[in-house]
Amino acid sequence: MTTTLVTNIATLVTNDPAAGEGPLGLVQDAAVVMDGDTVAWAGPAAHAPAADTAYDAAGRAVVPGFVDSHSHLVFAGDRTAEFNARMSGRAYSAGGIRTTVAATRAATDAELEANLTRYLDEALRQGTTTFETKSGYGLTVEDEARALRIAARHTDEVTYLGAHVVSPDYADDPAAYVALVTGEMLDACAPYARWVDVFCEKGAFDGDQARAVLTAGKAKGLTPRVHANQLSYGPGVRLAVELDAASADHCTHLTPDDVDALASGNTVATLLPGAEFSTRAEWPDARRLLDAGVTVALSTDCNPGSSFTSSMAFCIALAVRDMGMTPDEALWSATAGGAAALRRTDIGRIAPGARADLALLDAPSHVHLAYRPGVPLVSAVWRRGVQVV
Ligand code: NIG
Ligand code: FE
């Protein structure tokens, strides 16, 4: 196995409190040694062990590769017209999902996969080394299963979201659609997925329907995650905690009881500021969640409707500017927080034994991700120890 030394790092974010300062485990004048696909050593450059090859970080910052724990990347078409209308004053509604469903059903497998890899490459260039993605734009047994089959070729973090909205084919009989999602569609999809998700929202699925979807998925070995409390108050967050979901995603409209539930359980609150940005909605209150002791993740929600960004750095900047997070908290949530939302300990940190996923920033510290919004600061990326950017 070849070892590689990345040295002359001005600021290293390890997310390993034992290795450095604060929750980010910050080390100044640092180095990292990778052994094959794994981190072998991280610490002060002066103490770095020898390695086969060396890379000079030239006084810049290194952070763990971003963990994007929530995206919807198996789709076709785009919704420019809907975005344009929204920016002229129209409100966002979940109804736009059906536009993408029609385009996705009409696309070939090759078209869907080419679209997926295009956005994955785009995300990788911006430092995302792990991503989760979902079905939800097929809404038939065949179309949901093929979305997951295609996604599973590119990531282990695949989520079955047959319950995105009621299929237009079942507009008159939502109960029959829930029966399909919890029956034949689940049987066809479960082999490709690790997670089951439901959009628990007015106009999508209510609390009872969401519970049916999540418990059926659990019985098939899938772990729940929930689109919860995005557009309005509702039962999604409490249901997620009750069913020990890995994450409750969006969390924009929270009562004190919702916050207490998140603080008392194992469910991560995944905040998706790209959605509030692109729908001109009110921001989730990250400060309130952090002060209550909730684990917070940040993700893109990349999808053609409500949040068409693949940039974790953009989400960090929004979270710092508009959601009350410090730059340190936002960086943690976009890396270690995302790993927690995926119940992973091998990613989101740069520590011995972790996967060698690193992003080099063209900046002296991670704070520049928020301080220099919109600037493409990621200048090199290693994924599983291989330099891919
Ligand atoms: O997470 N909320 C539901 N699903 C997506 C939106 C999907 C769409 O508009 O196409 C979301 O924001
Ligand atoms: Fe989403």
TrEMBL record:
- Pathways involved: Amino-acid degradation; L-histidine degradation into L-glutamate; N-formimidoyl-L-glutamate from L-histidine: step 3/3
Q: Which keywords fit this entry according to its UniProt record?
A: Cytoplasm, Histidine metabolism, Hydrolase, Iron, Metal-binding, Zinc
Q: Per UniProt, where does Fe(3+) bind?
A: H70, H72, H227, D301
- Where along this sequence does the record place binding of Zn(2+)? H70, H72, H227, D301
Subcellular location field: Cytoplasm
The EC category is: hydrolase
Its Gene Ontology molecular function terms? imidazolonepropionase activity
Q: Which InterPro entries does this one have?
A: Amidohydro-rel, HutI, Metal-dep_hydrolase_composite, Metal_Hydrolase
Annotated residues for binding of N-formimidoyl-L-glutamate: Y137, N303, G305
Taking the first listed entry, what is the main subcellular location of this protein, grouped into a coarse class?
Answer: cytoplasm
In what residue span(s) does the Amidohydrolase-related domain sit? 248-366
Its cofactor is:
Zn(2+); Fe(3+)
Q: What domain of life does the native source organism fall in?
A: Bacteria
* Enzyme Commission code(s) on record: 3.5.2.7
Q: Where do the annotations place 4-imidazolone-5-propanoate binding? A: R79, Y137, H164, Q230, S306
**Record text on cofactor binding:** Binds 1 zinc or iron ion per subunit.
**Function comment:** Catalyzes the hydrolytic cleavage of the carbon-nitrogen bond in imidazolone-5-propanoate to yield N-formimidoyl-L-glutamate. It is the third step in the universal histidine degradation pathway.
The record's similarity note reads: Belongs to the metallo-dependent hydrolases superfamily. HutI family.
Q: What is this protein called?
A: Imidazolonepropionase
Q: Which organism is it from?
A: Streptomyces formicae
